[in-house]
Amino acid sequence: MQVALVGLGVMGKNLALNLIEKGLNLVAYDKNPDAGEDLLSLAKKEGFAERLHIVSDLSDMVRRLETPRSILLLVPAGELVDKVCSELIEAGVDINDIIVDCGNSNYKDGIARKLKYQNKFEFATMGISGGAEGARHGPAMMASGSEGGWERIIPFFEKVAASHNGESCFARVGQSASGHFVKMVHNGIEYALMQLIAEVYHLLRLGCGKSNDEIAALFDTWSEGELNSYLLSISSHILKLNSSDNTPIVDLIDNKVGAKGTGLWTAQNALELGIAVPSLVAAVQARHLTNTQDTHAALEMTYAAKQPAKVDIDLEELRKAFHLASLLCYRQGLALIKGASRSHQWKVDLAKTLQTWRAGCIIRADYLDQIAEGNGFIDGLNDEVIALRNIAADAVRSGLAFPVLAATQTYYATLTTPSNGHLVQAQRDYFGEHGIKTHEGETCHLTDLTHIDAKVR
Ligand code: 6PG
Question: What is the protein's quaternary organization (predicted)?
Answer without folding.
Answer: Homodimer.
